[in-house]
Amino acid sequence: MKSLLSVLSVLVALFVTSHSAHAVVHYAVTRVFLVGGESQEATQELCHQGTPPALAVGVNWRHESDDTVIQLCQRRQRVEEIDSSDLVLQHIAVYDTPACPMSMELLFQVNEDRMVCFRRVTASEVLASGNYISDVWVSTQLNYNTDAVGWTTIPQSVQAPSKGLFRSFWNSMWQTSYHGAFISYQRPVVPIHKVRLLAGVNAGFLRTACFTRIGNQWEDTGAGYLDHLTRGTKSEFCIRRGASDANLPVLLEVATMRGPEECPDRFSQKETLDNDVRLCFRWGEASASESPIVGIYFESLAVGKKPQAVLSGGYQLVSSTSLNIGRRAVFMYAAWDVIDEVPIPAPLDRPPLVAKSVPGANGKTGNLTYKILQLSDLHYTGDSTTKCHDTPLKMKASPCNEALMTKYVNELLDLEKPDFVVFAGDNVQTYKTSLRQASMDAATAGVEARGIPYAMIYGNHDDQRGFTREMMVEMAMAKPHSYTQRGPEEVYGIGNYELNIKAPVDGPWGSAGSDVFRMYFLDSNAYPDHGALSDEDTKYDWIRPSQVAYYRQMSASHTDNQVPAIMFFHIPLPEYAMAVSTHTNGRYREYVQSSDVHSDLFATLVELDEVKATFAGHDHANEYCYKRESIQLCYGGGAGLGMAYGWKEVERRGRVIEWSVDSENKREIRSWKHVFEHWTERRDEQVLYTERE
């Protein structure tokens, strides 16, 4: 174990000295397996019932019209807890062959000629090089998934054919090539230190020659073989990331040259292919102005098909000229570890948000507290007479309309007296231009009248019918007690920002005025522009790469004062749908309506280990918290009456979140809900995070 820890310390040192754009991933996948059941809920429970427990990752591997569900399960462990002799996942791939390569194990047989295969090796062999997999996800979408450096999406679908001739024919006619079940996997972001072209590889090795012939520290580079003139053999390109010597140069630039054209002088290494194509490589030291290459990928396409300029995972096309002389075209892509930092807006011209001091007994140091009320999916129209779409069956008050919702919100504010209120999206839903200002005024009337500070994020209904997010954020920012921010224009979406809670007095938590608690807000957007993004078919939009990068930037700006934080967005992440009963508090009533595109946000939150809980809205009948790894994934629960949909069997509710720190500087985050007309009850009270024994 000691030897492994020393290897890991070298890896961390190597990364820090070479580049600092990404933190080192602290997890490795140690096991993957498949389970089958009658429903997704059943298969998720089966994953968790494994020994040791595992987590379901992504969508069903069978077509939705079939009667059974197949789901991938994975177990991840922190690298610090992995023994040097333990096995970790090194490679996962899809092969269009009747069997897996000899060095790989079969995970799933899609059909007679498509196999999903994987390979595990001992931790001591691969952790230092970064040649291991730290996370896996399966999505219905081929494109835009986990579109962050470090992730790779396998282009072949692993969705099993539908049962029955009619279903198979129907799916083949109407299902697009970018819809299915696609595996994405993540590796640590570590610079490339060596490249090598293996010539004369037997085609039967099926793109495994890099680690079987050279060593487990070497990686293959995607689906593209470079065909060799000799019949039956090919060339395979290999990379090695990480090294025992952190002073080795890193790969900074790649280029391709054809015919008599030679590599320019700045390229110190070249590899010549049989078809008179030269691959050029420039090595050097990474700097703030020049980022290292952390991934190379060869894509295989039918001859004549135009390659995309960018692939998921940040891969950029090096040249539009095919490197191949065979029946398949092959194109080279490279990924750089680039951080495009954007200016963080100046703080709002508002009084600082300050925690409350609770004195201790007998003059001893007391606690600090901060209470937040989350209100989700109010759907204010601006017309107080708007009748309820779905009047709760147990509700006594009448008539059920928007005015009653305002009364409910005011009663919540007076009952809990929160220090802060978060309007968590779908705050308004207007049908008339004349009611836009009225709807925003109605949503915020209670907090403004009581002088309670608040912030807004936006959902998928706020900006319908021409009432844009820009208009709404301008209205919100103009209100006296609003702490809403637009966020940088360089970042996708409107409403990406942070708010810090300050200490009122000196104490074990730091000096007065120091940050003791933090809230992040991200715009989960609404509906994708299918015209601009023609190769996806998800209903809902997703949190984009620039937003995740901006969260990283905001988090990194607090490295000298990391405190437990929480995050708000409207549309839930796909991970919300993976909930299992033993790790869930509250009711999971309706299907999770997340985007079908999987962003890198959850993996980033786990990696940075700063945000302890996220809070969403959107699915009005859901009101649970599900702890997945180190993150509590929570719903606010629908609070809206009037335009907001709801289940007649489900009472409207609001979520309270209370942060505290005690005299020993131990933090805790608790939460509970209040249901309309049941004011004395705290529903599903729980500890979301604690540092106390």
TrEMBL record:
<keyword id="KW-0732">Signal</keyword>
<dbReference type="InterPro" id="IPR004843">
    <property type="entry name" value="Calcineurin-like_PHP"/>
</dbReference>
<dbReference type="GO" id="GO:0016788">
    <property type="term" value="F:hydrolase activity, acting on ester bonds"/>
</dbReference>
<feature type="signal peptide">
    <location>
        <begin position="1"/>
        <end position="23"/>
    </location>
</feature>
<dbReference type="InterPro" id="IPR029052">
    <property type="entry name" value="Metallo-depent_PP-like"/>
</dbReference>
<feature type="domain" description="Calcineurin-like phosphoesterase">
    <location>
        <begin position="371"/>
        <end position="621"/>
    </location>
</feature>
<protein>
    <recommendedName>
        <fullName>Calcineurin-like phosphoesterase domain-containing protein</fullName>
    </recommendedName>
</protein>
<dbReference type="Pfam" id="PF00149">
    <property type="entry name" value="Metallophos"/>
</dbReference>
<dbReference type="GO" id="GO:0005737">
    <property type="term" value="C:cytoplasm"/>
</dbReference>
